[in-house]
From TrEMBL:
Catalytic activity: an N-acyl-1-beta-D-(3-O-sulfo)-galactosyl-sphing-4-enine + H2O = a beta-D-galactosyl-(1<->1')-N-acylsphing-4-enine + sulfate + H(+)
Highest taxon, organism lineage: Eukaryota
E.C. designation(s): 3.1.6.8
Designated name of the protein: Arylsulfatase A
Enzyme class: hydrolase
Length: 495
């Protein structure tokens, strides 16, 4: 073998070793209210409108059995960032409002706080929705994030949030959320703009995300970017380049714009030469809102949507993407947003928080297409009653519903079980569904004489009390007062 060939082989081996020794970076792409059936890769018939997400699906590992921990925003986001069910942090059963004094407790450990001791730069772009609090005590920069550019709660939680008077249209013909401050755009803990310009918002987010990636890549510094878009939450908006581009109306325009930002983020990783050393994970915070007909999303073959503990409210699309590390394909293994923190912790070589975690490392699924460590999921409602607690449990392929309740957020689906008129019902014995054979939850097996079903119900009923007993009081409904996030204007720079 010639010296030159030997040198090339040695150089190649050193490059591979160097890449392996460089800590990976992490990007979480979180859509808002995007349903299981909303993407082409998950069966939606409208094609060619989300090329970036389709490239992600074709080049990554697509999950068909992936769950959010909650059918609404704040609890699901708390669970994603901490790897713990929302009941352990008190961020349940509903959401935080502009006047909420509570937030994600500061003693909870977020993904950002796990990574910072290893020298990671951390940033969140977009929707926080885990509290502001007096003196800005619950904002992301108090929870391990170096940088924050975004709206601290949901973009519909401002004056005139209904469709007819949603900015930039200033005419109000319907009921408005009076008494609320206009929606602010935050830069770290200072207000940058109020009211926010929604047509410009996604571009603002995308530009900041790309700059953050470029800065970190230029400094050879590993990073964690949590990109939490407002798309496709109702009421939808889009910038001029995306408006009118979809066959699905305003919902589709919002999805088109979100897809464009996803594409720009992936392009920034490639431009920085770090796309092969960055773990990207895409998912949605909960199922689709079905109260607005064509303005809402699509749950596909799943029952109901946002606000319910049926599959349509909690089973969401998810894609893991890491070129050269994760083999493209499809997995039917059960996993959850709860599993993201333990997985990132493992990949970074970081230390797990010294608390009870409900998530599991997904590495066996991601890199070996092996079995999942997750055997169960516990489902909590958005019902304001803390006493009811646990609604449903999944164990293996079976799911038992102890309680069911419709939601105004699923009011326009044809299924009456989903509607707000379908009041709280207790089921004894619980409803039982085989989700592998019946993901639409149509055929109740609980009354069957089959001994397998009776054995499954017995196992589930043994698991439920153990989990249900470990809950903190709710911070969402017990800590609301005359407090709104109006701050002095200011700015922050990327460092």
């Amino acid at each position: 073998m010639s010296f030159s060939v030997l040198s090339l082989l040695l150089l190649n081996a050193m490059c591979k070793l160097g890449s392996a020794l460089t800590p990976p970076s992490f990007v979480i792409l979180l859509a808002d209210d995007l349903g299981f059936g909303d993407l082409q890769s998950y069966g939606h018939p409208v094609t060619s409108e989300t090329p970036a997400l389709e490239r992600l699906a074709n080049g990554g590992l697509r999950f068909t059995d992936f769950y959010s921990s909650s059918p609404v925003c704040s609890p699901s986001r708390a669970a994603l960032l901490t790897g713990r069910y929302q009941t352990r942090s008190g961020v349940y059963p509903g959401v935080f409002y502009p006047g909420s004094r509570g937030g994600l407790p500061l003693n909870e450990t977020t993904i950002a706080e796990v990574l910072k001791p290893l020298g990671y730069a951390t940033a969140i772009v977009g929707k926080w929705h885990l509290g502001v609090g007096p003196n800005r005590m619950y904002l992301p920069i108090q929870q391990g994030f170096d940088h924050y550019v975004g709206v601290p709660y949901s973009h519909d939680q401002g004056p005139c949030s209904n469709l007819t008077c949603f900015p930039p249209d200033i005419k109000c013909f319907g009921t408005c959320d009076t008494g609320m401050v206009t929606v602010p755009l935050m830069n770290d803990d200072a207000i940058e703009r109020q009211p926010v310009s929604f047509p410009d918002l996604e571009k603002t987010y995308g530009d900041f995300a790309a700059e953050f990636i470029s800065t970190c890549a230029g400094r050879n510094r590993p990073f964690f970017l949590y990109y939490a878009s407002h798309h496709t939450h109702y009421p939808q908006y889009a910038g001029k380049d995306a408006t009118g581009q979809s066959r699905r109306g305003p919902f589709g325009d919002a999805l088109v714009e979100f897809d464009g930002t996803v594409g720009n983020i992936i392009r920034a990783l490639k431009d920085g030469g770090i796309h092969k050393n960055t773990f990207v994970f895409f998912t949605s915070d909960n199922g689709p809102s079905l109260m607005r007909m064509s303005r809402g999303g699509n749950a596909g073959l799943l029952k109901c949507g946002k606000g319910t503990t049926y599959e349509g409210g909690v089973r969401v699309p998810a894609i893991a993407y890491w070129p050269g590390r994760i083999k493209p394909g499809v997995t039917h293994k059960m996993a959850s947003t709860l599993d993201i923190l333990p997985t990132i912790t493992s990949l970074a070589g970081a230390k797990l928080p010294r608390v009870h975690l409900d998530g599991f490392d997904m590495s066996n699924i991601l890199f070996r297409h092996g079995p999942s460590k997750r055997k169960a999921m516990f489902y909590y409602p958005m019902d304001p009653s803390e006493e009811i607690g646990l609604f449903a449990v999944r164990l293996g392929k079976y799911k038992a519903h102890y309680y069911t309740c419709g939601s105004i957020l699923s009011d326009t689906t044809p299924d009456q079980d989903c509607h707000s008129t379908s009041s709280l019902k207790q089921h004894d014995p619980p409803l039982l569904f085989d989700l592998e054979a019946d993901p639409s939850e149509n055929y109740n097996l609980a009354m069957s004489e089959d001994p397998e079903y009776k054995a499954v119900l017995h196992k589930i009923q043994k698991e439920s009390p153990l989990h249900h007993s470990e809950r903190l009081p709710s911070m969402c409904f017990s800590a609301v007062g005359p407090f709104s996030p109006c701050f002095s204007s200011g700015s922050a720079t990327l460092v």
